[in-house]
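for the writeup, i need someone to sanity check this before i put it in the appendix. the sequnce is what the collaborator sent (i think, or maybe the updated version? ugh). structure was predicted straight from it, no edits. if anything looks off just tell me and ill rerun, i have time this weekend
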Amino acid sequence: MPAPADLGPVGTDPAGPRGRRRWRGLAKLLVTLLAAALLSFLLRAYAYETFFIPSGSMIPTLAVYDRILVQKAFFSWHDVREGDIVVFSHPPRDHCPGPADGDLVKRVIALPGQTIFSAGESIYIDGRRLAEPYLPADDPLGGPIASSRHPYRVPAGQFYVLGDNRADSCDSRYWGPVQGSAIVGKAILVFWHNSHPEFRGL
């Protein structure tokens, strides 16, 4: 009867220490990749999200195809201030040309409870002329906003928003104010502009 083959000492791993190290390395890599994917998902869902600008309605502040970073964590629409650039869900009353879904980006002009009207190319909030250093001096308003005799009062919990490219922007003049609860977050940074990286706070 032939002698049994020598299988080595009882309890040894045929793969040896090198094989075990390789499997441990692969397991660590897999865990790292899963953790990175989970962190990326959580950051996108709850902390920050990137958006691209699909139209010229925010020129000159934001150009077509610019990419912006939007703060979602620690954000509440109760903290929105005049002049903030915000991203919000598509307004249900929007019947302007263009895509009928997706989020929009505009600048907050009037807050809940404030009155707004326009005269010539100027906008007035609660009777005071709105200073807009972010716009060129000769920027045309385009469509008017109410009148001094009958100013529009923004309802509670809503915001009056306009594009910076006033003459070519579909905004609250056409579909009314935005519900605070529809605001996704506040734009805080441009990181891609005119087809190249550029970092600029908003």
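Residues 158 and 180 are 5 Å apart (CA to CA). The helical segments are 16-47, 172-175.
thx in advance!!
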